[in-house]
Structures are given as structure tokens and as C-alpha cells.
Amino acid sequence: MSTQLHRRRRTPRGGGVGPNWLGQLPYLIVLSGVAGGLVLCALHYFRKGSGLLAAAVLLGALARLVLPPSQVGMLETRKRWLDVTIMAGFAVAIAGTALVVPR
Question: Where are the domains positioned within the chain?
């Protein structure tokens, strides 16, 4: 048999420079913000929780806008402009709802 068949790859398949979990960091930050906002809403701090939710989603939109696809992780689901537009729209809608609902 030829020796080429038994050689291992020396370069990582992902082609990234850092660890594999580092690409998921923006997603985990956004997910933590959303979870924190939901906890605040469950504890009857609706405005603060909704504000945190809106800020987390807006941060996700910003991360999707400025980071390359290799570092954005699971925030990348569609085309960049569509992801950013949808997340920014959700953030504005959540913030608007938090401001309109009476205390």
C-alpha cells in the first residue's frame, strides 16, 4: 500500500486559528442575555427584563454585522443582511413593547 493513504491531516479541518468553542462565544453571550432577561421578566421586572432582552438581541445583530462568518457561530442562519434586519427589528419591537406597557 502507498504511504499516502495512511498519512494524517496536520491542519485542523475548521481552518480557524483559535479553539473551536471560541466561534460560539457571541452566540453564548446573546443567549445568556436573553436568559437573564427572561428570568427578570419571570420575577416581575418586566421593563428591566425586556430591556435586557432587547439589548441582547441588538448585540446579536451587531455581532452578526461586524464579525466574519468563522467567528459568529450559530448566529449565522441566513444571509448577513437578513439576519441583521430581523434581529434589529425584534430588538426594536421588544424595546417598544417594554416602553408601551403600563407599569
Answer: 46-103
Which grid cell sits at 54?
Answer: 432587547
This model's pTM is above 0.70: yes
Residue with cell 434586519: 85
CA 54 to CA 96: how far, in whole Å?
9
pLDDT in single tens digits along all 103 residues of the chain: 555 555 555 544 555 556 677 778 889 999 999 999 999 999 999 999 999 999 999 999 999 999 888 888 888 888 999 999 999 999 999 999 999 988 7
Distance CA 61, CA 54 (A): 11
